[in-house]
């Protein structure tokens, strides 16, 4: 198990230095602005150039998460044009393999992550994001984020639609991923509510649903789970996090981990510092180790502390390299070292 700098939206000299100063050897990037993807997919040349740049900074590129919405939205919606987007997604997978990048994460939320506040009060006056289901009628407080779609979903997508579209996607892309050796990793829904948000039902809202996703991959070694402990914790607390680890960890189905937590569960929760949420972080990391997990763990959605620019809705490197993130990374690294489970 190793700790990496994660969810980097804009990789530059500042984030590279932040990773090294935090004692980390690897980074994971999230729909990075460094990749143009102008033809509807990420090219081998731009992917290779990015990996080489990161390695030139003395770091390892652990993987990528989430292609741009313009490359993926029709696939999720099952709308006309999805087959072309799937062909381009297959190109991205093959190009990642050729460029030496092993993991591509994906989400299955056509209206992306929802929050009802990006500036809720946290511990000591820190700023955190929060969700309160009755307030969603006012819209998504994260609507300005780059992966949140602008166009409405009409007609609405039912749970049956979402499952059908996911199966169609898996059947098309897993054979390519298997052939070239890239792993595709599913992120649980955030927030994990069964009520539709923005016209789209949510289906990955329980441990049972994540197991079904695994089963729908028909044993493919190319399918994995991005264990976002915050999203799973928001389902029903610590018990759900341990259940997912116990169900999917021993089979090697957890590709990597977003280590964060929330206070409360759906329909109302707020993000928080690790150690004050629903679960006990050392117990979760120990359980992952005992389940055989040997991948990377990243920080995710950190609170904004005094002097920080903003919570995670701001993707600039100035906002990213924050006091809140340094605190979180030190906390995680300290647990890994204390437990003696690092690689």
From TrEMBL:
Keywords: Iron, Lyase, Manganese. Belongs to the mannonate dehydratase family. The keyword Transmembrane helix does not apply. Gene3D superfamilies: Divalent-metal-dependent TIM barrel enzymes. Catalyzes the dehydration of D-mannonate. It catalyses: D-mannonate = 2-dehydro-3-deoxy-D-gluconate + H2O. Pathway: Carbohydrate metabolism; pentose and glucuronate interconversion. The keyword Iron applies. It comes from the Bacteria. It comes from Catenulispora pinistramenti. Pfam families: UxuA. Its cofactor is Fe(2+); Mn(2+). One of its GO terms (molecular function) is mannonate dehydratase activity. This is mannonate dehydratase. Its EC number is 4.2.1.8.
């Amino acid at each position: 198990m190793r700790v990496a700098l994660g969810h980097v939206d804009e990789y530059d000299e500042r984030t590279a230095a932040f990773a090294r100063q935090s004692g980390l050897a690897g980074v994971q990037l999230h729909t990075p602005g460094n990749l143009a993807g102008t033809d509807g997919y990420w090219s081998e040349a731009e992917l290779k150039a990015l990996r080489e740049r990161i390695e030139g900074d003395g770091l390892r590129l652990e993987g990528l998460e989430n292609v741009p919405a313009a490359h993926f939205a029709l696939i999720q919606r099952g709308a006309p044009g999805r087959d072309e987007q799937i062909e381009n997604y297959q190109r991205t997978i093959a190009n990642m393999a050729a460029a030496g990048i092993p993991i591509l994460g994906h989400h299955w939320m056509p209206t992306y992550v929802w929050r009802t506040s990006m500036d809720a009060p946290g511990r000591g006056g820190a700023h955190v994001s929060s969700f309160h289901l009755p307030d969603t009628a006012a819209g998504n407080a994260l609507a300005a984020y780059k992966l949140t779609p602008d166009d409405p979903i009409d007609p609405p997508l039912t749970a049956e639609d979402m499952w059908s579209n996911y199966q169609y996607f898996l059947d098309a892309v897993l054979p390519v991923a298997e052939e070239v050796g890239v792993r595709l990793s599913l992120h649980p829904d955030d927030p994990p509510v069964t009520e539709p948000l923005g016209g789209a039902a949510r289906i990955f809202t329980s441990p049972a649903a994540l197991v079904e996703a695994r089963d729908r991959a028909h044993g493919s070694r190319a399918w994995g789970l991005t264990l976002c402990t915050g999203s799973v914790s928001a389902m029903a607390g610590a018990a759900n996090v341990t259940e997912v680890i116990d169900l999917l960890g021993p089979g090697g189905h957890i590709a990597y981990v977003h280590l964060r937590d929330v206070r409360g569960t759906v329909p109302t929760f707020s993000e928080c510092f690790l150690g004050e949420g629903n679960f006990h972080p050392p117990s979760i990391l120990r359980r992952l180790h005992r389940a055989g997990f040997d991948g990377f763990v990243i920080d995710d959605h950190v609170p904004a502390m005094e002097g920080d620019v903003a919570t995670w809705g701001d993707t600039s490197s100035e906002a990213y390299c924050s006091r809140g993130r340094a605190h979180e990374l030190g906390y995680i690294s300290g647990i890994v070292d204390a437990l003696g489970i690092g690689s």
